[in-house]
Please model this.
Amino acid sequence: MKIRVIELPLDFGASRRGSDMGPSAIRLAGLRQAIQELGHTCEEAFPGISVPAQEFLEVGDPQLKYLAPIAEACEELARRVEQAVLEGYFPLVLGGDHSIAIGTLAGLGAAYQKQGLRWGTLWVDAHGDFNTPETSPSGNIHGMSLAIACGYGHPDLVHLHGAFRKLDPAHVALVGVRDLDPGEKLNMKKAGLSVFTMTDVDRLGMAETVRRLVSFFRERVDRLHVSVDMDVMDPMVAPGVGIPLAGGFTYREVLLLAEELAASGLLASAELVEVNPVLDVRNQTAHMAVEIARRLLGGRVYE
Model:
C-alpha cells in the first residue's frame, strides 16, 4: 500500500499550546520505520504546510478563535488530502489539534464525490467535537470540526474546499466519548450521529463494540476514514494530550479497535491528532500514536 504522510502543525484551535509539535514527536517516535517494516511505501508530503506563529495573529471573534488562519491552513490540507486520494494513496494525516480535521474531511469529501463513492468516518475521541459557535463554551474551533464537516457551523468553514456537505451524519460513528457540552449533545442528536460512549464500551466490552462499529460501516459505506484524538486514551497511558480525561481506553482496547478496522478492508485514510509533547512523559504518547498507526495499517503481533 502507498502511504502519504501529511502533517499540519497547527494548534490554533485549542486553548493549550503545544500540539503543533505533535507531528514532529510522532515522526521522531519512528513512524516511517514502522510503516516501512509493514511492507508499505511511505511518502512524506514536502514542503510541509506552513503555519504562522500564533503570537503574531489576532484571535478575532471570541466564538470562532483564529478563524482565518485555521481556514487557510485547512484549505491547503484539504487540497493535499484530495490529491493523495485521487492519486491512489492512503492519506495519513498528523496534527496538530483536532481543528485540522476540517481540512482532512473536506479533502476526502471532495475526492469521494468525484469518484462516486460512499464514505464514512469513525471519530475516536473523548469529546464529540460537534459544537457550533452558538453552543461552544470556549469558542475553540477544535471542538467544532466534526459538526463543520457535517454541515453545521460558520459558512467559511462549512464551505471550505467547496460549497457542499462534506460528510453525511448518517455515515458517522463516535467511540470513546465521555465529555459532551449540553448544546453539543443536542446538536449530535439532531444530526443523528451514532455514538458509543465509554459507558457503552464498558457494558458491551471492546470486542462487541468493535463488531458493531464494523457492521455499521459495512452496511453504509465503500470507504472508511478514522480520526483518532489521543485524548480518547486514559491519561495513565497517554499523558501528553491537551485535555486529559480519566476513564479512557486502555492500551489493549485501542489496539484491538485499530486491528479490527484494518481487517475490515474498508479503511482508506487515517488521522492522528492532539499529541502534545509539552505535556508528555518521555514521548510516550507519540509512541502510542505510532503503535496505533501501525495497527491501522495492518500490523499484528502474530499472523
Notes: The domain at 2-296 is CATH 3.40.800.10 (Arginase; Chain A).
